[in-house]
Design a protein that fits this description.
Elements: E1 8-12, H1 16-26, E2 31-38, E3 41-47, E4 60-65, E5 82-85, H2 89-99, E6 104-106, E7 111-118, E8 124-130
Parallel strand pairs: 1-4, 5-8
Antiparallel strand pairs: 2-3, 3-4, 6-7, 7-8
Length: 137
């Protein structure tokens, strides 16, 4: 057996709709792909539904809200961050500034910019724009 592809990240949320709205702000072309309720847990698969190269429907976020808010625990120590490749870091920082979302940036030899931002549940995201000549971008 071989690894085929990375498909999703499963994340527990305090407020499913608030978390969806945050990601919708960052990635406006993403849509709810599927959603439901099971044993009091509300869940949603959220991502791009368009085929590549316009979109990437092979990856999505699985967002889950427990029935009891006390069941929510931060993933610190288990999940450091989720990385997303973006194509325009200047536009993204402009969007974050316009929406008043706090972030910080970092540069490395292979990147134009790495943007770090936390979602409403405290999960850190890395939004990275690679340099055009980086072979593994």
């Amino acid at each position: 057996m071989q690894f085929h592809r990375f498909e999703h990240v499963n994340q527990i949320c305090q407020d499913l709709e608030g978390t969806r709205q945050f990601y919708q702000t960052l990635f406006p072309n993403w849509k709810v792909r599927a959603e439901g309720e099971e044993d009091g847990w509300h869940w949603m698969h959220f991502g791009d539904r368009e085929a590549y190269p316009k979109g990437n429907r092979q990856f999505y976020l699985a967002l889950n809200q427990p029935p009891d808010p006390s069941q929510f625990t931060k993933s610190t120590g288990h999940l450091d961050h989720i990385g997303f490749v973006i194509d325009d870091s200047e536009a993204m920082t402009g969007l974050l500034d316009a929406k008043g979302i706090k972030y910080y940036t970092y540069k490395s030899p292979e990147t134009k910019c790495r943007i770090y931002v936390s979602d409403p549940d405290g999960t850190e995201l890395e939004l990275v724009e690679y340099k055009d000549d980086y072979a593994l971008k």
